[in-house]
Amino acid sequence: MNLFNHVRQSYGQSTVKQLRDLENCEKKVQRHRNHLVYSLRCRDQKLTPSSLKLRCPLNTNKAKEIIKRAEKGLIRERIRVVNYKVKNLKDKKDQLKEDVNNIIPAKSELGQRIERHLTTVAETTYQDTKRHHLQKLEILSEKAAARNKKSLASNIDLSGSQLKKWVINLSKYKLNPAQTSVLSKGLNFAISTPEIYAEEFVLATELACTHLPQDDRIQLRGKIASTLKSSKVPEQNITKEERKAIKDLKKVEDIIILPADKGKSTVVLDKAEYEEKVTTMLGDRKTYEELPADPTQRYKLKLVTKLTGLKKEGKITELKYKQLYPTAENVPRLYCTPKIHKLNTPLRPIVDYTATIGYSTSRWLADILGALVGNTQHHVKNSKQLSEDLAKVVIDEEDILNSHDVVSLFTNTPIDQVLDIVQSRLEKDM
User: Starting at the edge strand that comes first in sequence, how are the strands of the sheet with 167-169 ordered?
Assistant: First the structure.
């Protein structure tokens, strides 16, 4: 005879209802147990269930990071909620089972039959739900793998033509795959540190505290200590092979690694060839003049004299200059970038005036002269404006479009004429 019919005939319909409630509660417990395991696996494998996926309204990296953090938070909250439900359902099941056992003794033949039925129901429900959740987990894993594959495909292809675009090796030195890979990230790529150098932060904090009031010192030290205590080592963004490749490249003395003049490519040149080209370029006496001595010190004293009103007779000393201009100690530094878009890879000279005696003056002049730029009909703001202007030009079959390039534009610019033009524009702008 059917179990529920037997219970109905022996104990009435109300007892059948209690047994049905117990059976349903057992099923819910098994479903939620599987749901909890599924959520935990999603968290550990960094997968987001479809029901918790959020639509990102903004197509920016920051917005995507916000959505990612929100989805992780929702998974953690779901785990907490499901865990709480499992606990409540187990308590409810125990109470329902106790109510049924008060009517039908657990040691009786019918009671043992009910126990076997509930065990079968629990096992069947658990296995069915487990199979369903494993299928969902597999689908999520496949989708995540497909997204990662697509993301990798959209990045630099180190096995094809993109390699030649981002890493240009013009030297005799043969780069291995790890060296090529790390150079393709660019010379501005920030490598994560393998550990947190707390000693350096503490030392820098103590140096910064030297001139601060006592209360500010204590507050700053406390904030730094709290930050260091809660900080975690950042995830490594390069492989061990790439980290070793950086060390190996540093030991190679016959090459020099530079950014290209245009674009974001990394260029590897033979050091001897690079120095030869620089020497040839500086040998042009029409453009460059060799000085018998470094005039920086003389210009320093002259500038301080004009700005401070102090006379030279013993009042302006090197110490006094350092007090007035503590950062302006270096002379302009010359370096060259290779022009890979031109034949024979010529060099473009670049002068770095940062922290030099004329740096602050240059910045001040740049703000003034910037207002004069672009006030002519022949001025082009950038390449975007140039492409928009060229799109409006109609060229007939008999017409020819010429493009002219100036060799060493800045070094061939007539300085006297430029100063006259600047003076004239400034006077008109007054």
Answer: 167-169, 266-270, 255-259
